[in-house]
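step=encode ok
step=design start
structure_in=
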């Protein structure tokens, strides 16, 4: 979603600084009688830019009305100097040249057979004469039909897709359980032609709703300029006739694909009359023919229902000499915008306080992500997807940090984000913490080993914050008192930061017996054996690291030694 748009309409052609869809809007608004100043405000351009391109359009011999009906490629080539690109498909090639052939037929002495002969010279494998005449005749009838846009005062001459969920549900049988699974039925209809799309959805929730719209765009072959929807919760937080509150995810989706979302006014079905009519039609032309068919998956059901919808699109419109498909191809297909090739990612918005270690903590991941140190103590907005984490400035909303989202607990750190006094932050490890603790005292080193030995099944990074806390407590506490607290923690086999902090706050260790023995806290590869922990605190403080047994099991001490110890 965050990638730069690569659609053709957003690219500049040579020195032209206007998108082809904006150019079409300028022409159509001018035809509708809008002043240049209002046009400039509507399309977000300077009035001088509007004046310039309207001058180019007026100078074109084709005329403004004909120019407004051209597809993006043709209009771009004619006014902006772009280069068109066509596919090798016979039907698509013919569709792209139909407007030219219809125009040529109006010239003196030009016949359909002559145009077909020219067509076959360019495309030897193209349609036969009868097929060529058939497509040409229906395209001509559809093109000459007067425009009749619904709600033309709101969006004149724009491609518009109306969407809605049907009231009746569909169902399939889960082959693993044999249970019937109900589905919602999504309908989409182009407002001018009535060209329809249908698919099934597990629910009307946000994720499923957006996937249905994406399927509709792929079926149409592009993105319409306007999408009219109902006031369902997946799109609108609060319905209002004049100022509906669209939810943020839906706004992001519309921005990603480049269309304008227009929620229909409450209790106004005429605002999306075409899709309402299609829903009613689908009951008799899709639901009824499939009433006895048993499906075993949603994809299988989609395929069958869409096939019947395509047949309906190719059915002659009552009292009209064309089909919905022909009408769509002649008047709406060319106005669709290219679809953004990047898939849309649903973004979760939140805010987190940057901790003193220059990281934010996301509890859902049990992970830390670094942020530039100047934001320490500030509450920063954070955008989350399944794949990445983006932190933005709380004022300018510019990106200040970007991380790949972690799938395991731990830290994701960029060294440049850390302040100078955190130069060693990125190179932390269990061994470094233990080494730092041992430099203070042997009991503190044993305590740190015990901290990292609590649960060997979790990553060592989980204990980094507790290790930092123990080091801070050590710096703020009298050395003798802290050593006695470490001894006590080892005795009771509780080496957590919380326990050590509670002991210090209770005043423990200020008048303890220095000869109290240390009990072994538990075995671990990185902790010495039980015979070491049987030593007294006096031994540890005086540098005695092991005891030698006499042949009879007693300590190797003599009178002098006893006198020395007593002294």
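sequence_out=
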């Amino acid at each position: 979603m965050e990638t730069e748009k690569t659609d053709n309409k957003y690219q500049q052609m040579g020195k032209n600084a206007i998108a082809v869809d904006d150019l079409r809007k300028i022409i159509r608004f001018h035809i509708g009688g809008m002043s240049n100043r209002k046009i400039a405000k509507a399309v977000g351009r300077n009035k001088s830019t509007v004046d310039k391109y309207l001058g180019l359009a007026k100078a074109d011999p084709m005329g403004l009305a004909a120019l407004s009906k051209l597809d993006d490629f043709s209009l771009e080539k004619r006014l902006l100097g772009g280069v068109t690109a066509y596919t090798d498909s016979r039907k698509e090639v013919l569709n792209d040249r139909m407007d030219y052939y219809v125009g040529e037929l109006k010239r003196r002495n030009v016949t359909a057979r002559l145009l077909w002969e020219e067509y076959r010279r360019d495309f030897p494998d193209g349609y036969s004469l009868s097929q060529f005449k058939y497509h040409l005749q229906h395209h001509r009838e559809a093109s000459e039909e007067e425009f009749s846009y619904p709600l033309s005062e709101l969006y004149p001459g724009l491609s518009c897709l109306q969407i809605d969920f049907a009231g009746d549900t569909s169902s399939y049988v889960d082959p693993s359980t044999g249970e019937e699974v109900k589905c919602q039925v999504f309908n989409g209809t182009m407002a001018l032609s009535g060209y329809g799309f249908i698919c099934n959805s597990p629910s009307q929730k946000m994720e499923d709703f957006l996937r249905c719209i994406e399927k509709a765009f792929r079926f149409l072959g592009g993105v319409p300029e306007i999408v009219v929807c109902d006031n369902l919760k997946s799109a609108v937080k609060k319905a209002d006739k004049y100022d509906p509150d669209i939810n943020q995810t839906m706004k992001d989706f519309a921005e990603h694909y480049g269309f304008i979302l227009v929620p229909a006014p409450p209790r106004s079905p005429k605002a999306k009359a075409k899709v309402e009519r299609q829903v009613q039609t689908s009951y008799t032309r899709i639901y009824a023919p499939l009433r006895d068919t048993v499906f075993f998956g949603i994809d299988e059901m989609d395929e069958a229902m869409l096939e019947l919808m395509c047949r309906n699109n190719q059915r002659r419109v009552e009292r009209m000499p064309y089909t919905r498909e022909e009408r769509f191809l002649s008047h709406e297909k060319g106005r669709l915008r290219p679809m953004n090739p990047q898939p849309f990612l649903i973004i979760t918005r939140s805010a987190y306080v940057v901790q003193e270690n220059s990281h934010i903590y996301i509890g859902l991941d049990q992970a830390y992500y670094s942020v530039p140190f100047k934001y320490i103590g500030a509450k920063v907005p954070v955008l989350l997807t399944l794949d990445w984490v983006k932190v933005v400035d709380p004022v300018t909303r510019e990106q200040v940090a970007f991380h790949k989202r972690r799938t395991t607990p731990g830290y994701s750190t960029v060294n440049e984000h850390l302040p100078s006094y955190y130069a060693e932050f990125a190179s932390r490890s269990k061994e470094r913490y233990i080494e730092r603790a041992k430099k203070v005292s042997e009991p503190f080193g044993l305590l740190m080993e015990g901290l990292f030995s609590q649960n060997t099944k979790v990553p060592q990074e989980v204990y980094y914050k507790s290790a930092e806390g123990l080091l801070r407590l050590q710096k703020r506490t009298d050395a003798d008192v802290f050593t006695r607290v470490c001894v006590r923690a080892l005795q009771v086999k509780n080496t957590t930061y919380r326990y050590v902090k509670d002991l210090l706050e209770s005043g423990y260790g200020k008048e303890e017996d220095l000869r109290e023995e240390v009990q072994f806290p538990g075995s671990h590869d990185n902790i010495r054996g039980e015979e070491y922990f049987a030593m007294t605190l006096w031994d540890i403080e005086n540098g005695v690291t092991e005891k030698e047994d006499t042949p009879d099991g007693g300590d190797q001490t003599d009178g002098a030694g006893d006198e020395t110890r007593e002294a």
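step=design ok
step=annotate ok -> The chain is about 40% helix and 15% strand.
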